[in-house]
Amino acid sequence: MLFVSVKGKVNQLAKALGDEAPKRLKKEVASAVNAAAKRTQNLLAKEVSKELATSQKVIKEGISVTKKATQDSLNAEVTQKESQRLSLKRFSAQQTKTGVRYKVSKTQGRKFVKSAFKAMTLGEHIYKREGKTRLPIQKLHGASPWGVTVKNKLDEVVTNRDIKPELIKQLDRRIKAVNFKKSQG
What we know:
The chain is 45% helix and 17% strand. By secondary structure, the chain is α+β, with helices and mostly antiparallel strands. The protein folds into two domains: 7-82 and 145-184, no CATH class; 88-139, no CATH class. It has a three-stranded antiparallel sheet with strand order 3-4-5, with no helix packed on it. The protein has a three-stranded antiparallel sheet with strand order 6-7-8, with no helix packed on it. It has a two-stranded antiparallel ribbon with strand order 1-2. Strand 3 (94-95) and strand 4 (99-102) form a beta hairpin. The longest helix is centred in the C-terminal third of the chain and has 31 residues, at 154-184. The chain is elongated and about 80 Å long. The two termini are 41 Å apart.
């Protein structure tokens, strides 16, 4: 669990709110915490996509804000599902005459599975026959985004490097918004 001290920014926000501070302060801080949590979700997906050769959209499917901050509880929670391995079709798999080429990691080269095939009628997933006969077939998988996060400790990297500056940035946005509303009358 991460505890970020932003006492100075919260005091600035209370000062900007003035007389309305007792009513609106917790609401404004909760709003900033929720925005920072949403941004954390994007930052984690970006870090995982630096390792995996797939889109951030696919990675974000397993990352979500499971608990939002409220006025009563100023905590937000971002979690990543312990997902299964992604299908090889997510890793730009290409059918060749003798099998399928794919690239799971951005740091390593392409890999090849001999006698595998892309089944167009089965969602374009990649399969390989288990024996000499036509059936049964086995669906092939690549890496798990959750596994990459755990192995490379990306959650700690994002937490230590990005969350506190993001929360401070969001609190600054709230302070500017409050000051702007005050100046408009």
